[in-house]
# Entry
Amino acid sequence: MVGLCWRGNPAFSEDAARSPGLAPLRPLLEVPGIRFVSLQVGDGRREIAELGLEERLVDAGGEIERKGRDFRDTAAVARHCDLVISSCTSVVHVVATIGRPTWLLLSTAPDWRWGAAGDETPWYPAMTLFRQRRQGDWDEVCRRVAARLETAARSPSR
# Structure
């Protein structure tokens, strides 16, 4: 099972640049043989219905919200995920802190902690960074992630 989160805090001034939204993640949802769960809370959850993805993406974020948006609930769901894919959000820190494999989607101007280049971070050993190659081009990032996810899904060790 793969957890997804695509929007951070909309009150953060740089959120529009770091949050791709759900639409660019559609290629991930098309990878066969994988179940997806949303860790998204807040207004971003509306995108599941707006894009008609209720059958493909289980909305655990709704249950997390009903329980009060506690990070312990997010961590509990993430513990059952084989992988979590997220933009730069608090969710990515919670998941990586508990040691779950995490793929982080980054804009061309990421937060300082992710550095300017590379696909690894000293902060979280189980995290892989996927960086935009062109500013604002989330589609290309998500196609690369989907290809990597498809390869991982076919792996006999899965």
Notes: Residues 138-154 form the longest helix (17 residues). The beta strands are 2-5, 36-38, 57-59, 83-87, 102-106, 127-131.
